[in-house]
Every structure is written in structure tokens, then in C-alpha cells.
Recover the amino acids of this structure.
């Protein structure tokens, strides 16, 4: 089976940098994804790491260490609109593409 | 709007009734997924289609649940003899063949009374 652990809540102020960690245990691993979900909204894709290292997309970066079964999402220059839940997810199986999600981290950005 | 759409957005039903939800994926996406999400949890995989073929079904999905994707276009998810534990948000997503970026619809919120 698979399990993913994330902190339940993180708080930060506008303009700051925040890191959301994710550790996973999987029977197979085919990449780590990050999704953002605002209250009442649909999850939206942020990033994907298949290989070790850092992927940067604008203010958001994602890191993966397969040897440590660990990844993180880094959000820079925080804005109020970044207040949302953030989920890490692993792809389960090379042929099948289902995502197994963590329980999510609620990010609260204050002025 | 070229995103994933779901209908209805909200459904209230009485225990024991059958319900059916519809999902229209992004037109060029051949992969379609159904997830269920309860408050404070991440989406939980239910089933997955590639074109019209249902390739995987979660062990958590009882035989009261059935999904179809005729002609590889829209999909329906039916829940028979609903139970209060079925109350959740039902999310549909679609993707290209690589499955890396899944586009989610707004969901159907089911309340079983």
C-alpha cells in the first residue's frame, strides 16, 4: 500500500517563504505531484517530480529525494491568494495512472 | 469553457435511492478518473478509464458503485442503494496519455439523508 504524510497546517505572512514537506511509503514509485485546492474548489496541478532534484515554476518550486522518500513544495513571495490546501500525491504504477493523495496541508497566509 | 465539467453540482438523496453523476472531460483527453473526497481528506481514487476501457477499480469501491464511459467521451458514475457513508464530494479528472497533469472538474457534492 501507499501512505503519504504532510503537516496538517502551516501559517505564514505575506511575502514570506514556506516549505511544505511530504514523506511517502509506496510499493512502487513513479513520481510525486503537488496539487492546490482552494476551499470549495477543484484540485489544480502545480508540479511533478519524477527524478531527484528541484523543479521551479514561477513562485513555486518542488523538490524530490527518492532515496529519502521525501519531497517538498516551496512557495516564495507568499500572497493572500496562496491560502489553500496543498496535497502531495504519488503515481501508482507505470501503466495505471491513479494518484494516491496525502491528507493535505492547509496553508494560511496572513497580512 | 474547455475544462472538465460535472453534473449535477449538488445532489441530496435519501438513503436507499440510486444516483447518477456525469462527467465531461477535456475533449482531447483519453484518460478519465473518478475520485471521492471527504472533508479534510485528500481525494481518494475510485476508478479510471482509458478511452472506453475501465482499467482499474479501487478495492474500496463496493459493487453498489458502477462507472461507464461509452464511446470514450463522457463518463457516468452510478451509486445504487445509497448509504449515509456515501456522502462526499465526487471528483472527476481527465488527462493526456502520460497522466502527469490531471485536470479536475468542480465535483458533485452528494448528501445522503
Amino acid at each position: 500500500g501507499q501512505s503519504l504524510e504532510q503537516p496538517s497546517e502551516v501559517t505564514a505572512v505575506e511575502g514570506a517563504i514556506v516549505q511544505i514537506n511530504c514523506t511517502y511509503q509506496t510499493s512502487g514509485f513513479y513520481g510525486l505531484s503537488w496539487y492546490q485546492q482552494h476551499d470549495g474548489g477543484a484540485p489544480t496541478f502545480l508540479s511533478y517530480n519524477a527524478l531527484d532534484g528541484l523543479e521551479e515554476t514561477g513562485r513555486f518550486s518542488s523538490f524530490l529525494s527518492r532515496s529519502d522518500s521525501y519531497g517538498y513544495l516551496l512557495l516564495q513571495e507568499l500572497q493572500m491568494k496562496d491560502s489553500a490546501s496543498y496535497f502531495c500525491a504519488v503515481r501508482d504504477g507505470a501503466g495505471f495512472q491513479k494518484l494516491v493523495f496525502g491528507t493535505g496541508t492547509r496553508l494560511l497566509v496572513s497580512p | 469553457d474547455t475544462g472538465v465539467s460535472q453534473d449535477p453540482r449538488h445532489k441530496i438523496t435519501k438513503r436507499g435511492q440510486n444516483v447518477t453523476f456525469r462527467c465531461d472531460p477535456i475533449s482531447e483527453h483519453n484518460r478519465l478518473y473518478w475520485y471521492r473526497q471527504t472533508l479534510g481528506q485528500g481525494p481518494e481514487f475510485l476508478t479510471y478509464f482509458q478511452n472506453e476501457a475501465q482499467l482499474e477499480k479501487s478495492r474500496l469501491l463496493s459493487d453498489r458503485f458502477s462507472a461507464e464511459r461509452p464511446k470514450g467521451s463522457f463518463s457516468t458514475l452510478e451509486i445504487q442503494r445509497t448509504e449515509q457513508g456515501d456522502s462526499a464530494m465526487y471528483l472527476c479528472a481527465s488527462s493526456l496519455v502520460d497522466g502527469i497533469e490531471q485536470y479536475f472538474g468542480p465535483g458533485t457534492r452528494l448528501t445522503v439523508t
